[in-house]
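[job 4417] fold queue: 2 targets
>>> target A
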Amino acid sequence: MTSVAENPRQTDERDAGQINRLSEGFYVFRLQNIRVLLHHGMIATALAVTMVPWAHAQGGWQPDKPVEIIVPTGAGGNNDKMARLIQRILQDQKLVTTPVVVMNRPGGNQQLGFVYLNQRPGDGHYFIYATPTVFSNELNGVTQQHYTEFTPLALLVVENTVLSVRSGGSISNLRDLVIRLRADPQAVSFAMPARGGVPHLTLAAAMKASGVDVRRLKVVVFKTNGESLTALAGGHVDVMVSSVSSVLAQAAAGTVRMIGLAAPQRMTGIASTVPTFREQGIDSTGVTAWRGVFGPKGLSPAQVAFWDDTFTKVVETDDWKKQLQENDLAWQYRRSRDFAKYLENDYAATRAAHTEIGLTR
């Protein structure tokens, strides 16, 4: 029997239809005004090419160059230590496949770090380890940048504020401190990392409730809590106002004594012996001392989604849980959307606190 040869045009159109059907659900392979000449291995190659962008789209955005963690305070402080813990977890757990670096950019009451961040709009390779100073700088007139000009990524930690003195000093409790300040508001010097930040607001609220003229308090600002500790140990300042975790090691070693905790109730662990402000007759529980992560403005939903998933994995690691346990910190993690809602409420409360003690400009 004589075989009938197929019409080349019909064969080409049939092959083209097969490619379209095979690629359905990925990318439709269309040839306009071009004769289809793909057969066997060439068809497989064409399909592989069409699947590459699909696979990338399914994976979403991920870093393709070094990631930079910005710390708006100096090296060696508590914020720096937490940022380097994040760096280590990201690398050790291979949550980010590109290099991760920590860059300290102190200055301007922590504002220089935020200026640097927003010079990179839309770039998901940069984020800053932030504190409520991002609120206070705007409220105090240090900057006109509102916190909403950045992209909230994750709430990581909420800490309590404590007042500490060097062991063997003349101030033994908050009552002694208040007596001195009522007589002379400048009789005692206070070390803290930022003017108008959470330590400053917490101190001012407590002293105002005690009848002290808070506008005359002697505040000494240092770049890090580490520098504040050095000044306290050397007798250059009388009291250090900071997060509890910043002084736990020194308190355990006996070189520093915590005399008052700004919290509704006592903590556990090493800090369990520290009485609250209210226990010592001061009707104040302080201001929320959160720690979180912001990206620059203009991040895409895909970039935010990547960091949502990544930070969720960070806080589930044993290293992170160990850090919380050692510093007596409660689990406070919130993803980007919930962090944004948290910030909205906390900004309103912080603004009210600033106004109440006369710090808002």
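>>> target B
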Amino acid sequence: MEQVLGENEKLKLHGMIVWEPVLDSDWAPPITGTMARIFDKRVAQFYDKGLLVSALAQPELMKDKAPLVGTESLVNGKVVWDYIAVYARGAAWHGKDMPAPSFKAAPVVEAEKKLREFLVGLR
């Protein structure tokens, strides 16, 4: 993802990376080396121990039947993880209602090509 961001350094983007304890190995917040995988001044990184962002994102992301991650945890309503969502400029959360993303894809490792194509349209 850092490469995709670098290719689009002139776009006025603001990003959030939300780290969540999803896997058994996620017993602590990510270490500096893990967070350094994406170093871009436009991106803030957070650790969401209580999976609050996941809980807020799920209703909006589940409206569309297109698969996001293809895992039972998402289907069963437990955790939304390993996805990218891009929101239009000015999109805002209102209470517990998250806005609909303009773009979404998952898993992240397979989403770079789709994200590149979407960002080209924003230039």
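[job 4417] complete. Note on B: The radius of gyration is 14 Å.
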